[in-house]
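Usage

Read records sequentially. Each one opens with the input sequence:
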Amino acid sequence: MAIYLTKESKVLVQGMTGGEGMKHTRRMLAAGTDVVGGVNPRKAGQTVDFDDRAVPVFGSVHEGIEATGADVTVVFVPPAFAKAAVVEAADAGIGLAVVITEGIPVHDSVAFTTYAKTKGTRIIGPNCPGLITPGQSNAGIIPADITKSGRIGLVSKSGTLTYQLMYELRDIGFSTCVGIGGDPVVGTTHIDCLAAFQDDPDTELIVLIGEIGGDAEERAAAYVREHVTKPVIGYIAGFTAPEGKTMGHAGAIVSGSSGTAQAKKEALEAAGVRVGDTPTETARLVLAVLEERP
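and closes with the structure output:
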């Protein structure tokens, strides 16, 4: 089992013929992802050879869905075109849009995440590494060879910390790892993933990675307290970040006492979440909890 992405998922890549799109499409294919097409109106009708597979290019997401039955799109387009790309995908009826692009204006993100909800399209991102269900499918830029299929569900704001926890817990493995992105506005939240992992019978434990800025982790803590029965282990990045300075992600900025790592840690611990002080300690907490379970 998994959340959002399985071996049956059929993936389009918007921006497949660009440099990043080409590189990561090749990696997704190598991971076993069923990439059924790319989208580029200027190159419609062409095919792109990836090792032993030729992938067709369609003029629109609608054409790609009609021809292949695609239900997922991964967006590798420049920031100025991201809003139009997501709106096009939502209008075409895509079920899941994974927006890798960083640097998208916040007002564009607000517009397309809101619009996608009205169309029934789930957005992962923007400014995210995507998601992977190890051994089944990989939609985005997460390295596929650092872990295996297993019992842990992972939701994270940080791409790099996603990779580190996947590696440190590689002997246990993961059901699905979701990088939700670190921008102020994202389409899928910690809470969305917590709910999905809670309902997934093959996810035994959930790892939640947050970072300074905003109140997403505090809201996630409240959700855990009321709705999550599975053990949750947390890590918050940014304990040493200076006040008032944006750190790495557009959403990672502390203002006064709001959004600090300490406040988030305390909120999670009050909800029964064990929180590590470092990624390695967080991995050790996961192992300890799994050893305690019958």
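Summary fields computed downstream for this record:
- The two ends are 21 Å apart (CA to CA).
- The longest strand covers residues 149-156.
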